[in-house]
Amino acid sequence: MANLTPGPLLLEIKGYRPLGFRDAELAWPRRSVPKSGLWHSDPVTILCYHTVERDWRSTLAVTPEAFSEHCAWLARRRVVPLEEAIERIDRLGRLPRGVTALTFDDGFAGLYEHAWPVLSHFGLPATVFLVAQTLSPEGRAVDWAPTSPPGAGTLHLDQVLEMQAAGIAFGSHSYAHLDLINLDADECERDLRESRRLLEDLLKRSVPYLAYPRGLHNETVHHAAEAAGFSHAFSLPEGPEEVTSYAIPRAVIIPGNGVTTLRFKTSRLYLPFRRTPLWPALRAVARKVGLGLHLDQSHTGRTLPRTSRPRNRMRR
Ligand SMILES: [Zn+2]
């Protein structure tokens, strides 16, 4: 494995814009509704990984071998930075033909050792959503995962800054990884605002994107995210939900997902399909007949509650 940090030249050759957040992001245009054609392109969705580890038997960790295989396949398509994905996403949460974006929730330490070298090798941009409290002076134990991750648990600040300098982008995964739908409006806004303040302080740049812990969100959470200063937030839909700036759908990748499943999860039908009322029943049937598609979205594999209809439409 060579070329651990992709330079601008490699990224230009592969057709990417230079990685990392730029001043222009502060002036992100906010059109009300996407105008891209709904059925004129083959969609590829935004993917959500958690971490890459060899020795952690968890629904959150794919193996280095599987991740390398995924990245080799993705590198033959077009992986764009998240801000570009937002610009190009349609009403159904889909990206144009051959395009996807990579995100990682939780900021686990395995990203530094196992994911970043592979991303760099293939020149793939990615965004990592950090639990801000893990970088605070008091720190934060990983008590939201079913089992504890090996070693350090989550990324250290120096690792985050090193990855950021090499082009990896960072967003917020809230301050304390609480289920935001269980907080009242003020508590929720406080958590999210504090996460953004701390991360912007540490990263020395704007943090406009949020990924909801466990994908849990509702209209109150959307308002809190907006009030806390986030421009866009990402979910993990488990049923009907409208795509808006504060409910941008992603498909989660979990252990056991091979390239065939990856192809399915980035297919034209996947995201619209899993946002239908039929989804829970279809998933149960798929499991029963042993399709092995590994469709769970949440950290725990439990079904997430449906969300109320949000007032905010997608904006750019
Ligand atoms: Zn999480």
Structural class by secondary-structure content? alpha/beta
Strand % is 5-15%
Largest sheet: 8 strands, parallel
The CATH homologous superfamily corresponds to: Glycoside hydrolase/deacetylase
Quickly count the helices: 10
Output the helix-strand order.
HEEEHEHEHEHEHEHEEHHH
Q: List the domain count as a whole number.
A: 1
CATH architecture: Alpha-Beta Barrel
Uncertain residue segments: 1-44, 300-312
* Total strands: 10
**CA(first)-CA(last) distance:** 37 Å
Helical residues, percent: 25-40%
CA-based gyration radius? 18 Å
Present as ligands are:
zinc ion
Short description:
The chain is α/β, with parallel strands linked by helices and 316 residues long.
Question: How would you characterize this protein structure?
Answer:
Residues 1-44 and 300-312 have low confidence and may be disordered. Helix 7 (219-227) links the parallel strand 8 (209-211) and strand 9 (232-235). This protein has one domain (38-288): TIM Barrel, CATH 3.20.20.370. It is of the alpha/beta class and 316 residues long. The strands form 2 sheets. Strands 1, 4, 5, 6, 7, 8, 9 and 10 form an 8-stranded parallel beta sheet that branches. It has a two-stranded parallel sheet with strand order 2-3. The chain is globular and about 45 Å long. It contains 10 helices and 10 strands. The site of zinc ion has 6 residues, from strand 5.
